[in-house]
Amino acid sequence: MVDDHPIILSGVGAMIDGQEDLTIVGLAASADEALEGIGKALPDVAVVDISLPGVNGVTLIERLVERFPELGCIALTAHDDPGCLRQVLAAGARGFVVKRSTATDLLQAIRCVLAGDNYVDPALAARILNPRHGTQGDAGNLSERERSVIQLVALGYSNKEISSRLNLSIKTIETYRTRATDKLELHSRAAIVRFAHSNGWLADLQ
């Protein structure tokens, strides 16, 4: 659990630790503390506050995912805007929980990520999955495999993880990804995330 507010850190940590199936193995108040502590404890999940002093939570999640590929990161934030969610997913997070949500939502997010799934806070999911803006390309031009790959990229999976999930070679995944992004004229991960959200694809994988 990573949060720079002592009351939240201890309170939420104690709540999680009180669950029969969950155990807190470390608390951290900064990115440096988190990197050091996670490196020693090697937890299954890290709950990371986005508004950290110094290195922010989004950057921390990027570093954690790069250093510990098996770690499931959940962003905990006071911001419930789609832009924040896009940044978090692009960084590689597997979950997104708004601080004003209930304790049950956070526990559900942790259990979802532990089970290998992804979680987006209900307070934000409805807004994300109701498209209001046009998209760069036509999703109908994609093959089923191309769509699957782009969905997983939008959720923060690496080519290696997608390869394992779809039981295809990394080279094949790279080919599908390139074809899809060329068809849709999507030239960055952020653009892929926006496109996937605007088409409601995230709902298919929840």
TrEMBL record:
Keywords: DNA-binding, Phosphoprotein. Residues 135-200 form the HTH luxR-type domain. The keyword DNA-binding applies. Signal peptide: none annotated. The modification 4-aspartylphosphate is found at residue 49. The keyword Phosphoprotein applies. Residues 1-114 form the Response regulatory domain. SUPFAM superfamilies: C-terminal effector domain of the bipartite response regulators, CheY-like. PANTHER family: TWO-COMPONENT RESPONSE REGULATOR. This is Response regulator transcription factor. It comes from Mesorhizobium album.
